[in-house]
Design goal:
about 70% helix
Length: about 220
């Protein structure tokens, strides 16, 4: 069942993590997403956001798209296209945990986040350009800036990076992907998707292209080096 609160979303992520080996590719992403959700959730009731109701609904809607993808992993054909590279390669050798984590963030932000923004606006009777939505959306970037480096380091050891050329190559690969840049693009795509909401054919074509481009980026992030 979909979750209805941020606390439920955090509990669901904790349950997913408890049920998977730490080395599983989905578990690697889940660990990163859990840390980010906890950081955002801690600020929702502290006056940090101008419209906490909008941000709460967005956070929950966003998380439910991940939970739906995770639930579909037992049926490969049912896995959303944007998530297929991570699901297909989640047990592959030669891929570091941070690569799995960022491939999951890529799928979730570049594909799911625009969908979540539009769904949230439709549910609350508002639009992406209304009120404080964009300003609040950008405030999450500040939280991620503070958390991203620590999250990445939780998957890597600095001494190992200094000594191991393999991990240096991995570090160079994942450095090409930025959470904040992906979020900027996601907001732009949400605005486009919002304008297409009255045209099912155009909306479907746009989402298909977005899913394909997102999957391609994930496969690149999951290159064994």
């Amino acid at each position: 069942m979909p979750v209805t609160t941020v606390a439920e979303a955090i509990a669901r992520m904790e349950a997913i993590g408890a049920g998977l080996p730490a080395s599983d590719g989905l578990a690697c992403f889940n660990r990163m997403y859990l840390a980010v959700t906890q950081a955002v959730g801690a600020d929702l009731g502290q006056g940090f956001f101008a419209d906490p109701a909008f941000m709460t609904t967005l956070d929950v809607t966003f998380a439910n798209l991940y939970f739906a993808a995770a639930q579909a992993t037992g049926t490969p054909a049912a896995v959303p296209m944007a998530w297929r590279p991570l699901v297909e390669l989640r047990g592959a050798g030669g891929i570091e945990p941070v690569q799995f984590a960022l491939a999951g963030m890529n799928a979730h932000i570049n594909h799911d986040l625009p969908v979540a923004v539009v769904s949230t606006c439709a549910e609350l009777g508002t639009g992406p350009a209304d009120g404080s939505h964009f300003a609040d959306f950008q405030k999450v970037d500040a939280l991620l800036d503070a958390a991203e480096e620590g999250i990445r380091r939780s998957f890597e050891s600095a001494p190992e990076l200094a000594l191991d050329r393999h991990l240096q190559a991995v570090d160079n690969l994942v450095a090409c992907w930025s959470i904040n840049s992906a979020r900027d693009l996601a907001w732009h795509n949400a605005a486009v998707l919002w304008e297409l909401r009255g045209d099912p054919l155009a909306r479907g074509l746009f989402l298909d292209g977005l899913a394909g481009a997102t999957a391609l980026a994930s496969r690149l992030l999951l290159t064994a080096v």
